[in-house]
Amino acid sequence: MRTLPLKGSLALMALLAGLAASRAVADEAVRVPDAARIVSADGSVTEILVALGYEDRLVAVDTTSLYPPEVTRLPKIGYARALSAEGLLSLHPDVIVAGHDAGPPEVLAQVRASGVPLALTPAAEDGESLAVKIRAVGEAVGADAAADSLAADVEGKLGKIETQVAAAGTRPRVLFLMSAGEGAPRAAGAHTSAAAMIALAGGINAAEGYDGYKPISAEAAVATKPDYIVVPSHTAAALGGADKLAQLPQLALTPAAQKGNIVVMDTMYLLGFGPRTPDAVADLFHALHPGSGPS
Amino acid sequence: MLALRNIHVRRNGRDLLAGVDLDVRAGQVTAVLGPNGAGKSTLLSVAAGTLRPEGGTARLEGRALSGHRPLELARRRAVLPQRESLEFGFTVEQVVAMGRIAFARDGNPALDREAVALALEAVDMQHLAANPYTQLSGGERQRAQLARVLAQLHHTGGPQGLLLLDEPSSALDLSHQRQLVLAMRRLAGAGCGVLVILHDLGLAAAVADEVLVLAEGRVRACSTPEAVLTRELVADVYNVPALVRQDAALGHVLVQPVWREGAGTGAASVAAPTQKAFLAAAAE
Amino acid sequence: MSRMALDTAAQPLAAWRLGRRGRFVVLGLMVVLAFLASIRLGAVSVTGADIAGALLSPLGITLPGADAGTVEVLKIIRLPRAVLALFVGAGLAVAGAALQGLFRNPLADPGLIGVSSGSGLAAALVIILGASFTFLLPPPIRPVVLPLAAFVGGCIATVLVFLLGTRRGASSVALILLAGVAVGAICQTGIGLLTYISTDNQLRTFAFWSMGSLAGGNWAGMAPALFLIAVGVAVLARQASALNAFLLGEAEAWHVGIDVTRLKHVTIIMSALVVGACVAVSGGIGFVGLVVPHLVRMMFGPDHRTLIPASGLMGAALLSLADIIARLAVIPAELPIGIVTTLVGGPFFIWLLLGQRRKMF
């Protein structure tokens, strides 16, 4: 008797696994030209759609869609990784365009099963993948030509900065802090949007050696010897300005803080990987290379 | 009915029971007496089957206690605990009905209802049947628990089985103590075996057919109340002087501890008027 | 004093005369109404014809008045979700009622036997480290790794608590309680460690998972969980009389004929299976297992023969209502259901504690 429930649960696990096999989801290219009602479930997708001239067709966006400011007035479908199937369907969209990390998977499956086209676009982590993402968004709404020219434009601008970076010669060490002030500051390690931006703008990510955004101690912050500290605007605002940041005891001893080399940039502008990214890279490049002058 | 032979129980290197023999016979009330820590409650746990002794045999109706399943045991014996700890607001009636759980499979709800009603009547609590148990006084709780075990012993032909009680009178007033004594005698009269732990020697003398005195885990004496309850034994076991006297009018021995300092120490020192007054009062 | 006297059953005689059956009819109606509201209400507006259409479509009947798209929404999203709410609500409430009986503590909660924290740790493992091991698993299992892991994690934690709380074949309720606290703390530490190495996205995914959601309900995926919940609830309901006696005390329960060892094993294992299955399909939903049995005790008294089935019905009804709130509050997005249950359950719990304090002082 004592072992029965355990045996039973093992049998049920097998049953669970068997049933799971029946619900594989097929991924096929989604293409809805002339879509009049578009829902965007990704901040960068929203920016791309707006850049492609589809702003008027957007009926709702997710909580990471903050640019341009007009889209924040649209109905919110919640956080991109915790979507609501019915909420999406109630908007009667012709197509839903989402980022690679949209979810949960069950909800995506429900949406697809109810017949609403759902396009998942690839992740953009550098210039190349950004162009791919722009073209994917364009394909989903049938704006291939416009997407092509936007992608080419983005690639062109990024190529220009690449030349400038090569010409600049110096490669300053940059520490990107996602948060600071409350406890240990969280610095961007490898495989982060911030690290990608630093590389594009001709800097060296000072906090290499780990993945993601992690808290680092005051000593470790000093040891990274950053020439510049870059913070997103929300972090600087929370502290009351870049000056206050430089005075934080955890950072005061870094070369960047002592020279006052604190760069503040808008969060989505800097990390969003959308059509504005070439401009953001250019801004960051100039901030990190003061002698290079405006192009 | 219940036969314990050479029972040994050890805990933390200490002998709680060392070679105890005990028989509870059908139709008899056996009282267990002894000072604090003598092993009385341990003995009751062994008798109830809750505690398996390290040595010795415990048999109920000829079969080892450990060979009975809880359900079978519950149909043959009931146990009234010293303390209860029910903190959920059942009604008194629901608490008493819990004594019938072992009989649920018999599918005789009429008998169950009869058992509960008779038990409530026996402890004088019919009027409190629907009251929440948690709002009862200590004495009322004790009576409700007594009703529960009485209900458990109820069978078609009247009460049957073995009843074990651990200090059932501790919170009862005089009238309900008497009710308890009458209930025990009535059960014995109907053929039940009763084993009861008591502190009140007088109560034990009045209710018991047999008295077992435990001290430090050993049987100090075991016989009729008249044979066991002597002033020597009380002085020896409890280190308390007492007056002991057979009383023809009451039909059992009277045991009166001497409460006041200096009074009653040694037979010669007992003042005649004191003893006379005491006996007169007792005879009323 | 580890136990708390909760005098929730000051049942007036008149209420008893109302009859067990009558009160169950009222509860049953609540469940039916909540279920209907759960089908009727949501971001997509539906008509009665749509509902009838959805209910008739498995029989091959197409109702002319029903909108085909809406019928699909009902069949694919809303009906499974409404059914899931009933089962998870009932499962959590019944497991809570049974465990409160077993621990003889009206403030006990399924979290006490480690099942919630074990599930949480397993879920965190899959969400944060899943990418590095899911490819090793056979393909059919991959889509259900998270619920499966949550279920298995909950069961493992419970077995661990159980083994720690058992000595020489005898389980001590007090030891199990302590072991549950210890295992829970260890699991929390594990979750903290995983949180440290997680990316922001993983962290948010886990945060949403631990706040619970019924959004993932689909027939095939939830069938095993529903089966498990139904079996567990049925088995727990059979322990009702024994749990009543257990409230008298462990020895007393044994004296009236209860095999207390078996009772403890069955109650803990079945509660763990039920809660594990609930957590697997819905994530962390707090306060249902704690508060619903309380509500029922206040209305019906502490008798488990009533408490367990009534808790099941009330849990089903209340979780359905909570889910309706979760999906209506911020259309077209939705709230995690755990937020709704905690928002309602938390203050209620404080109110209970205040009532308790009044009685004590």
What key attributes describe this structure?
heterotrimer, A: 295 residues, alpha/beta, Rossmann fold, 2 domains, four-stranded parallel β-sheet, 13 helices, globular, disordered N terminus, B: 284 residues, six-stranded mixed β-sheet, 10 helices, 14 strands, 34% helix
Task: Give the tally of structural domains of chain A.
Answer: 2
At CATH level 3, the topology of the largest domain in chain A is Rossmann fold
Helix content of chain A: 40-55%
Strand share of the residues of chain B? 25-35%
CATH class of the largest domain in chain B: Alpha Beta
* Cα-atom radius of gyration of chain B: 20 Å
Q: How many β-strand runs of chain A?
A: 10
Order of helices and strands of chain A: HEHEHEHEHHEEHEEHEHHHEHH
Please give a quick description of this structure.
The complex is a heterotrimer of chains A (295), B (284) and C (361). By secondary structure, chain A is an alpha/beta fold.
Task: Describe the protein in words.
The complex is a heterotrimer of chains A (about 300), B (about 280) and C (about 350). Chain A has helices at about 5-20, 45-50, 85-90, 105-115, 125-140, 145-170, 195-200, 220-225, 235-240, 240-245, 255-260, 265-270, 275-290; strands at about 40, 60, 95-100, 120, 175-180, 185-190, 205, 215, 230, 260-265. In chain A, the strands form two sheets. In chain A, strands 5, 6, 7, 8, 9 and 10 form a six-stranded mixed β-sheet that branches. Chain A has two domains: about 40-150, Rossmann fold, CATH 3.40.50; about 170-290, Nitrogenase molybdenum iron protein domain (Rossmann fold), CATH 3.40.50.1980. The model of chain A is unreliable at about 1-5 and about 10-25 (pLDDT under 50). Chain A has 13 helices and ten strands. Chain B is of the alpha/beta class and about 280 residues long. Chain B starts with a strand and ends with a helix. In chain B, about 45% of the residues are buried. Chain C has one domain (about 15-360): ABC transporter involved in vitamin B12 uptake, BtuC. Chain C is about 70% helix and about 0% strand. Chain C has helices at about 15-20, 20-40, 50-55, 70-100, 115-130, 145-165, 175-195, 200-210, 220-240, 240-245, 250-255, 260-280, 290-300, 305-330, 335-360; strands at about 165, 170.
